[in-house]
Request: fold
Amino acid sequence: MLNTEEKTKAVVAALEDVKATNITVIDTSKNSALFDRMIIASANSTRQTKALADNVVVKLKELGEEVWGREGEDSGEWILVDLGEVLVHVMQPAVREYYNLEELWSKAQAARPKLAKAPGAE
Reply:
């Protein structure tokens, strides 16, 4: 079984194999108890979106990883592959721009309460 970093690297490699563009990895471990990494990649067509998601599933299964779920294959504009602690979003550019997950998650990170300083600490 791969750790989170190994799984993340395997997903990125699988996406690069099928020429994904604009691959972004977001560390969500401090924002969510459900998953530790979110990987977002762009595809130029419905066909490529499906091919990217398929390749991620095949490559991760070859490494002994479980695929918990897949969503969005009917339209092919946005496919989510759930690998447990790693979520993969394969999106066409217009959909990616509209939902802007990178900004959403960066705002979530910024909104986290800051740790209180210990009394007398500066």
Summary: The beta strands are 21-27, 37-42, 69-71, 78-82, 86-91. The domain at 4-108 is CATH 3.30.460.10 (Beta Polymerase; domain 2).
